[in-house]
């Protein structure tokens, strides 16, 4: 089981590096917002893997709250960018 956890964490790390590259290189603001949302999801997934490794379920409500806040933040930012583009 340790090999599975190591592989999952390695894949999450690679995905996080690619997401950070898109965050820094994104040609538009919406690309950066999407990359930031994916990055938060990757952090939540890594924390869930940590909870699985140590059999500690006390962080699950925190993970759900962070994911919900990330979703609301991404939707709000996307709507603000849409309105800003319309007023240009």
Automatic annotation (TrEMBL):
The chain crosses the membrane at residues 6-24, 36-54, 60-81. Its main location: membrane. Pfam families: MrpF_PhaF. It is a multi-pass membrane protein. Keywords: Cell membrane, Membrane, Transmembrane, Transmembrane helix, Transport. It is found in: Cell membrane. Belongs to the CPA3 antiporters (TC 2.A.63) subunit F family. PANTHER family: NA(+)/H(+) ANTIPORTER SUBUNIT F1, NA(+)_H(+) ANTIPORTER SUBUNIT F. This is Multisubunit sodium/proton antiporter MrpF subunit.
